[in-house]
Amino acid sequence: MSKVSAEGSGPFGIPVDAAVAADARERLAAVEALLLESVHGEDPLLTQASKHLVEAGGKRFRPMLVLLASQFGDPAAAGVVPAAVVVELTHLGTLYHDDVMDEATVRRGQESANSRWTNTVAILTGDYLFARASDLLADLGPEAVRIQARAFARLVRGQIQETVGPAPDADPLKHYLQVVADKTASLIAVSGQFGALLSGAPPHIVDTITSACEKIGVAFQLSDDILDIDSEAEQSGKTPGTDLREGIRTLPMHLVLAGVGSGPDDARLRELLVQDLSGDDLHAEALALLRAHPAMDRARADLRRWAEDARTELLTLPDIPARAAFTGLCDYVVSRTG
């Protein structure tokens, strides 16, 4: 057994077996190289716009999941690195489109593509990244194409559901969790699925990793919900209460509106949550009340449950170093909100 590397050497600072960490770094470098190659085109503007977010960096969370999952088969299998690039290109393509829909001006600390160029250029760049992902995907076989197509359908469905909101007779909280599963967790699940499948892991391992990664994906989004409210800017990387200001209802807000918890300021907070909070005074009041509300503890409990459900599934996998890395991610997603 290889010795475990020092804290911080693995993804998100989790301890990772030294051999697994070295292999992941090597293959992640190959992912970066193929990612840059994939966005280079004959048109200078298209190349520049496509490289805009690639070169801005990012966690490369989805490619890392592909690489970790491949440890349950042959991590050197030919399709593993291209699959990691496919999921990252798909993710980046959605960011271009998201920024247009959200009228965002900044992405990853840089001017957003729609702000730097135009909405049209940003939309077409996102489309181009989807096309480049499909080109790579075609070499991975019909099953991989089918998996990606179904995940992409879920992703689009989640975006539409978020845009139109719940039906009048629907449970808003249930609707929100379905949006999270479709819009965010679907591609994270595919990342684990691709890594296991294309490395030749047995079918029951592929199924377990896919299911656990979907739960990790939901947990990551719920942790983002909590961090947006309860962290300071230097911790979360964005202005606290951004969702609140933009009228985006996340888990803690849904819990308040559903009557979870109680306190002397419940009525006032519910009144604020259905108002326009773009103004500084009302926003500050709502944020302070929300931070102090029992719904925040309930949101943390829900987050822990999703992470623990993922861990329970992961612990049925073979006891290899990659399993410890996956369970470390479950710890990380909870601890980042502590």
Automatic annotation (TrEMBL):
Which leading EC class covers this enzyme?
transferase
Cofactor(s) the record lists: Mg(2+)
- Which PROSITE patterns does this one have? POLYPRENYL_SYNTHASE_2
Family annotation (InterPro entries): Isoprenoid_synthase_dom_sf (IPR008949), Polyprenyl_synt (IPR000092), Polyprenyl_synt_CS (IPR033749)
Would the keyword Isomerase turn up in this protein's UniProt record? no
The keyword ATP-binding appears for this protein: no
Tell me which PANTHER family the record gives.
ALL TRANS-POLYPRENYL-DIPHOSPHATE SYNTHASE PDSS1 (PTHR12001:SF69), GERANYLGERANYL PYROPHOSPHATE SYNTHASE (PTHR12001)
Q: What is this protein called?
A: Polyprenyl synthetase family protein
What is this organism's lineage? Bacteria, Bacillati, Actinomycetota, Actinomycetes, Streptosporangiales
